[in-house]
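Minutes, project check-in
Item: structure for the 259-residue chain
Input as provided by the requester:
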Amino acid sequence: MKNINKVLREWPYGTALPLSWLNEQGLSGRDAAKHAQRGNLLRLGSGAYARPGDVLTWEGGVYGLQYREAPPELSFWPGGETALSLAGYSHYLMLGRERLCLYGQPRLRLSKWFTDTDWGVQLEVGRATLFTSNQDRQFDTHTPAGRDFQIYISSPEMAVLEWLFSVSDELLFSDGIVDTFGGLTSLRPRRLQVLLQACTSIRTKRAFLLLARHFKHGWYSRLDIPAIELGRGKRQLVKNGVLDREYQVTVPPRFANAN
């Protein structure tokens, strides 16, 4: 059995780690339980531990969830509004408790040790059904401030589609989304093209393209829109709105192209 002090020295500061990591360090489940009883380890629940005295944040918890995983085969990841905020794109500060938007594979259940731990955020878990396959998803890395570890998060291009998909029609043209979308000036058109062609939600794609056109983002003109499946027929996104002729959606008047 490896010396516990050496294990603690090798522990990335501020992370929660699964029992499998401790096993790799030479500690069995029984050893870990004994060290937790002695105060050498902090048990977070069934299957995960932290180093006593570390300041734990949800990023450190996600590090543990993603241990030994790599894109695109991730089980869970921060996406949507959370990923946009981490990438510096969110200009709308929510009132109240911070939300952590996690997305996961449809058939996987989030580990109980993670859900049972108070990370100081409001946890929202969405199922990753927006794209055709895992291979279509795109991720970036994020290093939390003051930490030496990285986690995988949705790329901004994927995050904005996740966000639009998750919100109700009533919020689709709210100030928070509109203001944030207006700041998305540096999205990568090649990534967007792949994601839009793989996206399964007609509503999400039409809303995204309409907002991109409204803000005249430079990357919008570089998209091959005829290659994106946008379905047929009219869709109502807001009540008592105006029909946008190009994308066949009913929207607030200032967003519509009625010609």
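Outcome recorded: The chain has a mean pLDDT of 93.
No further action items on this chain.
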